Amino acid sequence: AIQLSNGIQNIVIDNVELGPSALSILCPAMEGKVTNIFVQCVTFPAEQVAECYEIIATLIRRNHALEKLIWRNNRIPSDEQADQLIDSVIDNRSINMLFLDNCFNQNGVNGCRALASLLTCGRPFKTLSFSRNGLSGIDDVAAALATNPKLKNLWIHDNQLNDRDAELFAQALKQNANLHALLLDDNCITSAGFDMIGTAI
Prior knowledge:
alpha/beta
């Protein structure tokens, strides 16, 4: 149906297990057509995870109609798979909104590293969302933000950021003229931390 239709622009994939055979059929059908992809609560066969991520990364890289990717509640199993996703997004210059929410907070997969890679890649983004990822120790992200990347909205609410992280953001924001919105609620930042950010802007 996707291959035959020129009108399908939004795809939602929710609460299913997908293996390589299903992905090999589904992913090519979306190329050049689908502008918004929402993938939530999806699992992959344990012995085929690496192959599944390779197929997904290829889809993301090749679908130059894709503008918005929401990858939510899909736990990324390793930094290697995280790199595959991030690199494919960076390579596809049509993507301007990326939501990687509740994906990194297990197995030691480094969400801060992934976010810093996006901020330093030189690509313009409208929105990056990394909520509910257990982020803390945000040094690399703050340093990347200080380079004034072409990013309008950064949503990192509901993590484990504290006042030290807030201070790092405050220093970074003094060097940043592009960011329009920074969402930090539901972290461990006190009023003192928010005061530092408020003073910086």
